[in-house]
């Protein structure tokens, strides 16, 4: 099921994405066994060229989040991507839901517009 | 404050700037120095320095740019959400002005990105989490615990909770 996150992404979602997108997808899959996962390269919306792979948004739907408050869910995602966040990944939007939450509310808020001038 | 919020963004921004001019308008190295000087080996990014900053005020935000002029969409989202709730009086620290603080705040919270929001000295999350708290009513409750009445309680009688 292709969720609204992809629809909102605009043009940055060709195929499997670049190498960082694939790494993010692989690591989140291994760490969290998501039932649904969307990885979006937002770099073009932050002034980078397509494929810059510096700003990402992820939607992770996983039973591992059950019982965890949002902060802890996001920490699990960060932990899985620790090396990337210490390196080329400058910004990471995270939406973390349990399968039940995703089923009852398959909507995500739109990403905030870039205001430019953002460095890590 | 509520009237300011309803009057429009520009007035709100001016009010925010006025509220913060004594603090966030200056380079943080100056602000940290004012706070009592360096203690031991602690720079502006040390645990002790960050601890002082997060406890300065019930609402403390580490962001890129300032509330009057955010330099990042995620930081701006935090500012706008707080503004919606009528929260204009808070401490905002521009990490772009202070590389030591920029790293120090990430080490302190073990959180890799900016912005970071602290309520009552406690890290609550970044832009995504604040937005979620805003949407599900949790932010109104957390502000109430700090003795801050959200402007939305007056603006909307039917605050939806999921």
Keywords:
heterodimer, A: 120 residues, alpha+beta, GMP Synthetase, Chain A, domain 3, B: 162 residues, Glutaredoxin, 4-stranded mixed β-sheet, 4 strands, 48% helix
Summarize the structure in words.
The complex is a heterodimer of chains A (120) and B (162). With 120 residues, chain A is of the alpha+beta class. Chain A has a domain at 35-102: BolA-like (GMP Synthetase, Chain A, domain 3, 2-Layer Sandwich). Chain A has helices spanning 4-8, 19-32, 70-80, 82-85, 99-104, and strands at 36-41, 55-61, 91-97. A three-stranded mixed sheet of chain A has the order 1-2-3. The model of chain A is unreliable at 6-14 (pLDDT under 50). Chain B is an alpha+beta fold. Chain B has a domain at 47-157: Glutaredoxin. Helices cover 48% and strands 10% of the residues of chain B. Chain B has a four-stranded mixed sheet, with helices on both faces. In chain B, α5 (73-84) packs parallel to α7. The radius of gyration of chain B is 15 Å and the shape is globular. Chain B starts with a helix and ends in a 7-residue tail after the last helix. In chain B, 47% of the residues are buried. Residues 1-40 of chain B have low confidence and may be disordered. The A-B interface holds A 46, 70-71, 74-75, 78, 82, 85-86, 91-95, 105, 109, 111-120 and B 64-65, 70-74, 76-77, 96, 110-114, 123-129, 131-133, 135, 162.
Task: Write the CATH homologous superfamily of the domain at 35-102 in chain A.
Answer: BolA-like
Radius of gyration of chain B (Å): 15 Å
Give me the CATH architecture of the domain at 47-157 in chain B, please.
3-Layer(aba) Sandwich
Number of helices of chain A: 5
- Indicate the structural class of chain A: alpha+beta
């Amino acid at each position: 099921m292709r969720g609204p996150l992809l629809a909102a992404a605009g043009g940055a979602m060709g195929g499997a994405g670049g190498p960082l997108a694939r790494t993010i997808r692989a690591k989140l899959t291994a760490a969290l066994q998501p039932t649904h996962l969307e990885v979006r390269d937002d770099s073009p919306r932050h002034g980078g060229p397509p494929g810059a792979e510096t700003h990402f948004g992820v939607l992770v739907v996983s039973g591992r989040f059950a019982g965890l408050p949002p902060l802890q869910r996001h920490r699990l995602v960060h932990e899985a991507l620790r090396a990337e966040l210490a390196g080329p990944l400058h910004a990471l939007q995270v939406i973390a839901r349990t399968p039940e939450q995703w089923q009852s509310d398959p909507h995500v808020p739109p990403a905030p517009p870039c205001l430019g001038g953002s460095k890590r | 404050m509520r009237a300011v919020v309803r009057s429009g963004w520009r007035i709100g921004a001016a009010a925010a700037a006025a509220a913060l001019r004594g603090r966030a308008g200056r380079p943080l190295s100056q602000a940290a120095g004012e706070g009592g000087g360096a203690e031991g080996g602690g720079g502006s990014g040390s645990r002790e320095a960050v601890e002082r900053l997060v406890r300065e005020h019930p609402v403390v935000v580490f962001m890129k740019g300032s509330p009057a002029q955010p330099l990042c969409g995620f930081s701006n989202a935090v500012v706008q959400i707080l503004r919606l709730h009528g929260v204009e009086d808070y401490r905002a620290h521009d990490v772009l002005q202070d590389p030591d603080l920029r790293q120090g705040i990430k080490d302190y919270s073990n959180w890799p990105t900016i912005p970071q929001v602290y309520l009552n000295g406690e890290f609550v999350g970044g832009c995504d989490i604040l937005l979620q708290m805003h949407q599900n009513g949790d932010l109104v409750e957390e502000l109430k615990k700090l003795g801050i009445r959200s402007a939305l309680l007056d603006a909307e009688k039917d605050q939806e909770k999921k």
